[in-house]
Amino acid sequence: MLMLAAAVLLPGLFWEHGPESAGALRQAGVDCVHVPAAQAAAWQKTGFCHHPSDRAEREKVPPPGVRWEIDVATATRAPWVDANGWRYERWRQGRFFCEVPRGAAALAAAEAFAYQADVLLRIDRPDLEAYGRTLTFLKRLEGPPLPPRANIAVVDDGSELAGEVLNLLARRNLLFRVVAAPDPQADLSVKAEQDDPSAQADQIRRRLTDEKRLLRLFGSDVVLARLTGDAARSRIHLLNYGPERVEGLRLRVLGSCAKGKLSALGYENAALEDYTAGARSTEFSIPEMERLRGGRFAPVR
Are residues 59 and 162 in the same domain? Predict the structure, then answer.
């Protein structure tokens, strides 16, 4: 994972293990947990920071990751990114809960942080070290939170169709914001209105044009981006959903930007490469991004 960003809302850890695990939490760098209400009294005796929480009060979201759909007829593999960013953008005030499979704790934590979502994560105990390492990295990032940047306004009627359009826009790194009515200030204002959400997402890209896209990524189908910023600065969150490290990722940002700082999980001295700032756009490369989880294979039916 790479981030040119910082914010104040960190993902929460829903911890069902008993108070005897407080030492392991401290060793992993976790200083506070959410616990079932029935365990609150026992945790109170330890002095460890804890919050009684009811997971049933939160909207459950699927775990993030990537699947490869194997087409036996053509012997090809197509990655399908399972991401929650579009959900977090759709319901900015939502409260979420995620059951995280083994190996995906770092990605789930980074995703929640990137979108500044109120998320509780339930992880496997063997993933505690990876979760703690990610949490420590996120805490060290500098700077105040910035508002999301997007130039596509999507009128959301709350339907499943609209949700799938948002999902597919996010997977294509087409930056959108959800609105209740058409926004004349946006470069493009749309409403989900086709039976084929994939075709509409492609149509939206053509209508916007690549020249007007605020951010473009080259070199990976499994890295998703979120752009935030104001009149003075921009920040980019990049998440690698795939099972392998990504090398040579190239980014194009609309507008001329001064060279920024790179913070990347797992890399102490990471730096941007091949930085070029022109009058209309800025381009640079990320030399390497670490993997955050393993992938899953699913046959096409």
Answer: no
